Amino acid sequence: MKQVKIQIPSLVENIRVVESFIDNSKDTFHIDDDIYGNIMVAVTEAVNNAIRHGNKFDKDKNVLLSLQVEDDRVKFEIEDEGAGFDYENLLDPTAPENIENPGGRGIFLIRHLADEVEFNKDGRHVQLTFLLPTASDDDEARHSTINGAETPAAR
What we know:
Radius of gyration: 18 Å
Strand content: 25-35%
CATH topology: Heat Shock Protein 90
Largest sheet: 5 strands, antiparallel
CATH superfamily: Histidine kinase-like ATPase, C-terminal domain
Helix content: 25-40%
Structural class: alpha+beta
């Protein structure tokens, strides 16, 4: 298992640092393009939430971001120094009464982009897991069409 950690002050400008961290991790650990976009959106959203809602933009409080790469998955952990929140009782942003609300979609989005989402420490810590495609997944996708004809794997 390979692990990398960074710590950033709670400034919105530091989202750029997180984006670079993800880009560098993609190259270093050969993270597949198929999940790269999901990782970029979900992790930056989680860090943004930690800065805004967790640490309340307090530059003296930090956000810790770590990455663990295993054979079949990539895990990102984001932790802030805030008071936490009730992650089990969030409003449904797709409910008609919430559609017009400008916020409230971040956790919803994160839960749909990551394969697994786990909150700890009263919501101050979130672990996002992204499953890596296996060699057999790649082979199946590659062999699902032959000369433009659909094969059983593509159905």
